[in-house]
Amino acid sequence: EVQLVESGGGLVQAGGSLRLSCAASGLIFDDHTICWFRQAPGKEREAVSCIYIKDTRTYYTESLKGRFTISSDKSKNTVYLQMTNLMPGDTADYYCAADWGPFLIRRAQEWGLPAGEMDYWGKGTLVTVSS
Q: 65: which residues sit within 8 A by CB, 6+ positions away?
């Protein structure tokens, strides 16, 4: 079965940094787009960033460009999200999600990316940013 396991969440002060990890198994890593979503209490789940593993094409939500960086390590079947200059508004459950092929990168670049487009999900990791 496909498994996506997030790690790296925790409590951090405003202005600090965290690196989240998403370890994937049960799929052909190179054939998938891996994305990070986040959901704060009472709010909709929103796309943060995606990477198509085969050629490392990326997508970022415009408001987070410059603070968050997505990357991958094919040898470890792992995707990372480096988060810097964290703010209280970044507090949320962060989820790793996967979809076959490069198609959602193209879609997100043109129209955004609803959570329902993803095929597989991890259980999430909580990031709390204190003021």
A: none
Nearest residue to 111 (alpha-carbon basis) of 76, 73, 59: 59
β-bridge pairing 92-100 and 32-39: antiparallel
- The closest alpha carbon to 12, from 86, 108, 115, 89, belongs to 86
Q: How far apart, in whole angstroms, are the C-alpha atoms of residue 131 and residue 120?
A: 33
Query: In what helix (H) or strand (E) does residue 13 lie, and over which residues does it extend?
Result: strand 10-13
User: What pLDDT digit, counting tens, does each position of 6-45 carry?
Assistant: 999 999 999 999 999 999 999 999 999 999 999 999 999 9
Residue 26 backbone class (left: φ over 0; alpha: ψ -120 to 50; beta: rest): left
Helices (H) and strands (E) counted in the chain, each on its own, are 1, 11
Rounded Cα distance, 128 and 88, in Å:
7
Two tokens at 56? 């490392």
H or E element in which residue 106 lies = helix 103-111
